[in-house]
Design a protein that fits this description.
Shape of chain B: globular
Structural class of chain B: mainly beta
Helix content of chain A: under 10%
Helix content of chain B: under 10%
Radius of gyration of chain A: 13 Å
Order of helices and strands of chain B: EEEEEEEEEEE
Distance between the termini of chain B: 40 Å
Oligomer: heterodimer
Distance between the termini of chain A: 36 Å
C-alpha cells in the first residue's frame, strides 16, 4: 500500500499567521489517466471529515480561498494563508490513485 | 444538498456481525462510486471498501477481505456494509462517503466490538 507521511504532527499557529502542512507519498501519485488524486481533508473537533482540496490544488465549493494546495509526484503541501480560529482541527492528506486509498496520519492545527 | 445518514452501529461481541446502512439524498446516487471509511477512537482514517455505480466492482482493504461485504440498492438510494467475524480492532466510527474521491461524508455510526 502507498504510505502517506505528513509533517508536522502538531502545528501551533498564531491567529492571522500562515501555516503549512507537508504530505509525502511512498510512490508517485500520477495516475495512468494523467491526473494526480491527492486530496486534503479537515476534521474539526467532534465533526466528520470535510474535503477541502481535490486533485492537488482544486478547492471544494465553500472552502475559503485562504486554503491552497500544491505539489506534484510524491510531495504535496497544504497552506493556510492566515489562520483563523475556525481552522483548528486535524488535517489529513489522502491518495486515491492506487487502491486502497490511504490517508496520512494527520496534522493537528492548534492556536498558540 | 448532499446528505448521507449512516445507521446500524452498536455493541457486538467478537466474532459477531453488524449490518450498516447509509441513506443518501441530494444527488443522483446511481451515478457515483460510494465508499466506507472508518476511524478508530482517537485514531486516523482508514479506507475500508468502495463500490462502483452498478455494484459490479468492489474493492476492500486487506484487513477486512472475506469478512466485510459492501453492497448498494440504487432504487433505495442506499449503501450497505455487512460486517462478519468482527474483531476488537474493527471498533470504529464508520463513515459513508460519496465518490471514489470521498467528496462528502456522513456523520458516522459507531461500531464497538467487545465482550
Amino acid at each position: 500500500d502507498v504510505v502517506m507521511t505528513q509533517s508536522p504532527l502538531s502545528l501551533p499557529v498564531t491567529l492571522g499567521q500562515p501555516a503549512s502542512i507537508s504530505c509525502r507519498s511512498s510512490q508517485s501519485l500520477v495516475s495512468s489517466d494523467g491526473n494526480t488524486y491527492l486530496n486534503w481533508f479537515q476534521q474539526r473537533p467532534g465533526q466528520s471529515p470535510r474535503r477541502l482540496i481535490y486533485k492537488v490544488s482544486n478547492r471544494d465549493s465553500g472552502v475559503p480561498d485562504r486554503f491552497s494546495g500544491s505539489g506534484s509526484g510524491t510531495d504535496f503541501t497544504l497552506k493556510i494563508s492566515r489562520v483563523e480560529a475556525e481552522d483548528v482541527g486535524v488535517y489529513y492528506c489522502m491518495q486515491g490513485t492506487h487502491w486502497p486509498g490511504t490517508f496520512g496520519g494527520g496534522t493537528k492545527v492548534e492556536i498558540k | 444538498e448532499v446528505q448521507l445518514v449512516e445507521s446500524g452501529g452498536g455493541l457486538v461481541q467478537p466474532g459477531g456481525s453488524l449490518s450498516l446502512s447509509c441513506a443518501a439524498s441530494g444527488f443522483t446516487f446511481s451515478s457515483y462510486w460510494m465508499s466506507w471509511v472508518r476511524q478508530a477512537p482517537g485514531k486516523g482514517l482508514e479506507w475500508v471498501a468502495n463500490i462502483n455505480q452498478d455494484g459490479s466492482e468492489k474493492h476492500y482493504v486487506d484487513s477486512v477481505k472475506g469478512r466485510f461485504t459492501v453492497s448498494r440498492d440504487n432504487a433505495k438510494n442506499s449503501l450497505y456494509l455487512q460486517m462478519n467475524s468482527l474483531r476488537a480492532e474493527d471498533t470504529a466510527v464508520y463513515y459513508c462517503a460519496r465518490g471514489a474521491s470521498v467528496a462528502n461524508w456522513g456523520q458516522g455510526t459507531l461500531a464497538i466490538v467487545s465482550s
